[in-house]
Amino acid sequence: MALLIRSHFDLARTSLKERRGRTFLTCLGIAIGVASIILILSLMGSINNLIKTQVEAIGGNLIVVRPSDSKDEVTNILSELTNTNHFNKSNLTLNDVRTITSLNADKSVEAEFPIMSVAPLAISTNTLVGEHTVEAGSVLGTTEELQDLIGLTLKSGTFLKNSTFKSAVIGKSLSLRLFGTDEPVGKTFTLLGERFIIVGILSESNSPINFNRVDLMIRY
To answer: Is 6 a domain residue?
Structure first.
């Protein structure tokens, strides 16, 4: 048996020496395969850590309800779930927000996890006109409840006000592009023919929860 094993070993060694090119390519393929598996596992671990970080950042108790296009194919459903443009045109309305909010007041509804607060989201890209014009500014339409939901902090001013005038909270980057200053509280700008007054400045944050890098929040 030992002689047979040694014979096979010598035969294999001789074959490898005689076919050095094939041996090199085989070893290269094995190395690439192993490296690919390690890379995929590393990426999966990084994604899991990112999701975990985002969930922990908001306390793990935030639910986002997204509008649906009523598509049946799996590929369309996946596209729907990953496409932020679905916040632009929605079949959800403010009446839906009021309905969800009213569930806490409805004593006939027994919820294991009560709803603490609800805020609508509507993301779009529009032209903003202040002292300068920004052709493609990312805008998030929402209400004052969003501040507590995701823990937004302000550098100065106040958050969106539930008042008779249209208010806005702006980030530093967009503020510099619109007004050339990072302290524009009290200044106004025009969006879709409507004039908004800036009531607050967002603090800079490294949080990954940034709603597609939105730098402006408004309330109608």
So the answer is: yes
The tens digit of pLDDT for each residue in 63-110 reads 777 766 555 554 554 455 445 444 455 677 788 888 887 776 665 555
pTM of the model: 0.59
Whether residue 68 is contained in a domain is answered as: no
User: What is the chain written as a DSSP string?
Assistant: -HHHHHHHHHHHHHHHHHTHHHHHHHHHHHHHHHHHHHHHHHHHHHHHHHHHHHHHHTTT------------SHHHHHHHHH-GGGGTS-S--HHHHHHHHHTTT-TT---SS--------EEEEEEEESSSEEEEEEEEE--TTHHHHHT--EEEE-----SSS-EEEE-HHHHHHHHSSS--TT-EEEETTEEEEEEEEEPP---S-STTT--EEEE-
Residue 63 lies in a domain: no
Predicted confidence (pLDDT) per residue in 162-199, tens digit: 777 888 998 888 889 999 988 899 999 999 888 999 99
Instruction: Give residue 190's domain range.
Output: 74-219
